[in-house]
Amino acid sequence: MGLGVLEVKSSGHVPGTSYVLDDASRPALPQSLDANPVKYDKSNTIILVPQPSEDPNDPLNWPLWKRDVILLILSTISVIASTLSPLLAANTVTLAIFFGRDFTQMALLTGYHLCGVGVAGFIFVASARIWGKRHLYLLGTVLIIISSAWGGAAGTNYASLLWARVVQGIGLAPFEALVNASVGDLYFVHVGLQIIAAVSTC
Fold first, then answer.
1. Of 54, 89, 139, 184, which has the fewest CB atoms closer than 10 Å, so is most exposed?
2. Any idea what DSSP says for residue 26?
3. How far apart are CA 25 and CA 2, in angstroms?
4. Phi, psi of 184, deg, nearest 5
5. Which DSSP helix (H) or strand (E) runs through 60?
6. pLDDT, tens only, 156-195
7. What are 46's strand-pairing partners?
8. Cβ proximity of 116 and 162 under 8 Å
9. Distance from C-alpha of 160 to C-alpha of 166, rounded to nearest angstrom
10. Of the candidates 43, 181, 171, the residue with the CA atom closest to the CA atom of residue 125
């Protein structure tokens, strides 16, 4: 293969990959799994990865419109939340005059906000792996609403606005770190990659 990509020497399954097209010349799944029936898409040619369970609460079993609405809501909140980070950066000079502080102190409103995003991101990703993502999206939304009201009510109190920005960054973290992972929970691999590409482009 070109560009320094190593040629596969065995015909076995490559770790970290999934077969999505059924091909008679090479089995889609290891022989040990053949006892369980493999589920296909409606065209009966694409193997569903991951395989959906029989549980009606499994997001993979939900109607497509319901999954699309959930993704639309998450994407909309993510766009709104992600505008909070650079929002004050454009007005740094105006804020410096309003608060009577220097440029560096005003830039810290964005800097500490991004620190909140970064630190909370580690905690929220680990928490999502254990307890799921729903509670983090709800917590993040509540924190964003409260901290936005708090920041608006801070008036000329710089310290209060600074802490509101830190809390706002913490609330923003789930929407920065978990939305693309939610696509993997809602869609099969052959659909999810197209959706990630579309959502990332917008």
1. 54
2. B
3. 25
4. -65, -25
5. none
6. 999 999 999 999 999 999 999 998 888 888 888 877 777 8
7. 21
8. no
9. 10
10. 181
What is the pLDDT confidence band of residue 32, given thresholds at 50, 70 and 90? very low
Report pLDDT digits (tens) over 157-166.
999 999 999 9
Q: Cα–chain-centroid distance for residue 180? A: 4
Instruction: Give the span between the Cα atoms of 174 and 156, in whole angstroms.
Output: 29
Residue type, 120: A
Q: What is the pLDDT at residue 31?
A: 45
**Nearest-CA neighbor of 145 among 120, 127, 172?**
172
Task: Tell me how far the alpha carbon of residue 133 is from its chain's centroid.
Answer: 9
Residues 114 and 86: their CA atoms lie apart, in Å, by 9
* CA-wise closest residue to 175 among 130, 136, 128, 123: 136
Cβ–Cβ < 8 Å for 159, 103: no
Sole residue written with tokens 């009577």: 100
